[in-house]
Amino acid sequence: MNQFTREEIEAERVDLGEIETTLGFLLRMAQLRAFAHFFRVSEVGLKPGALTVLWVIALNPGLRQGAIARRLMIKPAHMTKLVRAMVDDGLVERYVPPNDRRSVRLSLTKAGKALYERSCGEMHAIHRAERGTLNDREYTDFVALLRKFAGIGAPP
Amino acid sequence: MNQFTREEIEAERVDLGEIETTLGFLLRMAQLRAFAHFFRVSEVGLKPGALTVLWVIALNPGLRQGAIARRLMIKPAHMTKLVRAMVDDGLVERYVPPNDRRSVRLSLTKAGKALYERSCGEMHAIHRAERGTLNDREYTDFVALLRKFAGIGAPP
DNA sequence: CGGAGATTGTTTCCATGTAAAGTATTTTCA
DNA sequence: TGAAAATACTTTACATGGAAACAATCTCCG
Q: Which one is the CATH code of B46-128: 3.20.20.70, 1.10.10.10, 3.40.50.2300, 3.40.190.10?
């Protein structure tokens, strides 16, 4: 019984209606795809969020953690946890300047720098994997549109 | 003291390097923007995920919840919680067919249908808000690229 | 038939992310 | 000056989402 009745077959056909043309929905699907690409090629063991923070500290040593959080749209509470985890992992150092003892300035430890160097090599693989099936033109357009939509200024 | 030293001013300038050209990062930024748009116009009180599920049930009454979850890329464990919450809210009904008593088929209650009707009216506002600063051409291209990147077939 | 294996959904436990209140410090201005 | 407000981060308490193990049911095939 229940051997592929017409109802059963149709039951798997899911009509999404207008949702399928909604940017919110499409962005979620795209992000899931991007995550899959990332985890397929990444070997440094950091998740996208932590790797991004590591990268930004490497490029901007001594920056206040709040400045990084604002720029990456990470909420302060979450930033605190991310930083603590990275400090616990021996990747990041916190420095409280006597200047302003409320703030925390971040820099990489030796191990953090080493991981950053390794991740640089991975960047190319990540970019390549991320492009997926998009050709050069599509990729360029996609990046430009994402930047415009997200309200990020033109690339430097 | 600490009156806008050069260091202080530069300290807020955050160099993102290649991260800024990474699809993963840009997609996250874009999604945050889309969320902001959504919450700015939506009045039905459902979050994007729940509204999407409500919408899909409305369009496909009697569908198994697993089929919906797979299509929306929602993990089964999460789908169980979403459905339970919507049942508790009196929006959704579960029906276990004697046919196959493992499965659960979903449909909207009267209140669920009413909410769906209201959300239909909102759809236009959501679409409009979502476009943000993109013009017609950009919007069309953006949707097409998102679909291609996410691996979703051409629109119906 | 009847047990092995597949399917469907649920539970438990954990990671991620946020909101709101709390702490410490610095700035402002009456 | 010194009290009020602003800033920078942390803590707590909670919401969201996932992985893995579990339970129930169904299918397949000897």
A: 1.10.10.10
